Amino acid sequence: MEIDWTSVNWLYFGLLIAIVFVASLIGNLLSFRRAVLGAFISTVLFAAAFIGWTYYPHHLPLPNSPMRVAVPAPAPAASSAAPATPAKPANPIREVEPR
Fold it and tell me: How far, in Å, CA of 67 to CA of 12, rounded?
């Protein structure tokens, strides 16, 4: 199985590389040349930056998904006869009032 290089989101990939570089640089500076501590700090910094970048609702036109999601076309509506009496909901509350 080969990689389809045309389907790679290169901007997203480059931004992740930049986040990893900055996280590693800060982690190594804070660890005072201790390799395991620097790797741990870099991992925590990258995880925080990745979660913030990907899941925080910043409403900016930035790439925030590694995959390009294709939206399927809606299926045509089936033309069936509607039931004579609609089913009653199991919930006895009929109106919801805002708090």
Answer: 9
Contact 34/42 with Cβ under 8 angstroms? no
- Per-residue pLDDT reduced to its tens digit, 51-67: 888 777 777 776 765 55
Axis-axis angle for helices 35-55, 10-31 (nearest 10): 140
Hey, what are 39's tokens? 């790797």
Residue type, 27: G
pTM of this prediction? 0.56
State the Rg of the chain over Cα.
25
Residue 45: which residues within 8 A CB-CB, separation 6 or more? 22, 23, 26, 27
